[in-house]
């Protein structure tokens, strides 16, 4: 099944919480179909799949999710159309379920019982994928700044070159998209365009922005720092982090992170403007890596 223009796109999560004998996962019951599945739903036009996952899980389960590692997508045919559902593991961050016409029950079940309750084999396969990996992971996000006009048309110091109108709109969209990964420390290049890119997210999450010359370009001070080594140090501290930097430094950060975590380096680690990598780490190992780009504004 291909990713064509007629493909139905949806997203959801294996929402879990600690239980007495291991994790418990949330299943939702749809009275229209009388089935049990994971919370999920279709994307709105132009909506980033990360935002779809968060919105749909909240709408169906009443729980606001914090996304963890990416799980394998599921593809199948529904009403003669190809459907792809992207999934993440997720923990809950508060909420309260209220029955409605679409979902009338939510139950938290231990994994073995949930596997027996699920109505579809592709969901059971997904649950087994979840159970085979670490439940809780720590995200490390590498973000390339958004659109900042043409460098050749900027007469001032390049460190001060700001985002353009498109870049500001992209930064606002990123704030909501990245919020799906929960609270993180925020590090930024000292340049205006990087700081402006993370400002909406930092405001959204009530986080401080820590400028770091290691993630900057264009000055002698920045050139004397080692971006990859600094990122490896941040990962070693064991707390979630977002780093906003420049396109020319992204490969160095990703390569050093993979080497530090004993994982293969992606064939092409580059990012478009406004794109970001999310490295999910557990017990000093890279569990999964996902790359995202902003959808057209």
From TrEMBL:
Keywords tagged on the record: Hydrolase
Keyword Nuclease carried by entry: no
GO molecular function: bis(5'-nucleosyl)-tetraphosphatase (asymmetrical) activity
This protein's name: 8-oxo-dGTP diphosphatase
Any Gene Ontology biological process: AMP biosynthetic process
Organism superkingdom: Bacteria
InterPro entries membership: His_Pase_superF_clade-1 (IPR013078), His_PPase_superfam (IPR029033), NUDIX_hydrolase-like_dom_sf (IPR015797), NUDIX_hydrolase_CS (IPR020084), NUDIX_hydrolase_dom (IPR000086), Nudix_hydrolase_domain (IPR051325)
Residue stretches making up the Nudix hydrolase domain: 6-131
